[in-house]
Amino acid sequence: MKSLGWKTIIATAAVTSLAGLAVAAAPTQAASPAVGGAHVRTAGGSRAHAALSPRELAALPLTGRHLTRHEIANLAVVLNAYHVAEGKSLDVPAFVNSFAEDGVFNDEVAGKAYQGKALGDVLPYMANLFPDVHRDLKRITVNGDVVSIELSIQGTFEGPLQTPAGTVKPTGAKVDAPTADFWYLRDGKVEKFNCYVGYTKMYSDMGVNLDWASAVDKH
């Protein structure tokens, strides 16, 4: 396995900070409705319209089943944001439009924030890094204007990863990174999206280990 120093790991985390957003394959646990009459692929491979029907809601891994219409509408916005970030249905303007004018995406692990057009800058890059990347939604909690999701980012490392230490060549390794997403909405738009990606696990799956020695040698 290739070993990278702490500074390189942190810098690389910043490069891949939108890893949780590029989804090139349908989620295994959730339907992702596309707002505006578009169609999306559900867990069973079928297609559904924009509205979240009782059957579609029943298929989602929700922690609570008694959602208000307002909460269902918020959930649809979030699931649609996932859908338009997929590699096979990439729509950067639609993703950016999911956010309020002052909306922000925070990669809490890498310590980076993205606003405006920058919200979509990394989506094509991530689709190249993990062409089949998808989200396995494990648990969804909707509480008013807050949607919290426990998930795994899964995919195949088939594109080169550019780092300050050089290029990590693709290995075809399978990636399965634990992730937590917290979406905060206002008037049907995403006001803030806080994403916590398990980069250590992701890099380990890609064949990159943390270089503990480089940190120890500095003390």
Automatic annotation (TrEMBL):
Please name the Pfam families in this protein's record.
Answer: SnoaL_2
SUPFAM superfamilies, sorted: NTF2-like (SSF54427)
Sorted alphabetically, the keyword list is:
Signal
Q: Where is the SnoaL-like domain?
A: 91-190
Which Gene3D superfamilies does the record match to this protein? 3.10.450.50
Q: Which residues belong to the signal peptide in this entry? A: 1-30
Name of the protein this chain belongs to: SnoaL-like domain-containing protein
Q: Taxonomically, what lineage is the organism?
A: Bacteria, Bacillati, Actinomycetota, Actinomycetes, Kitasatosporales
Taxonomic source organism: Streptomyces yokosukanensis
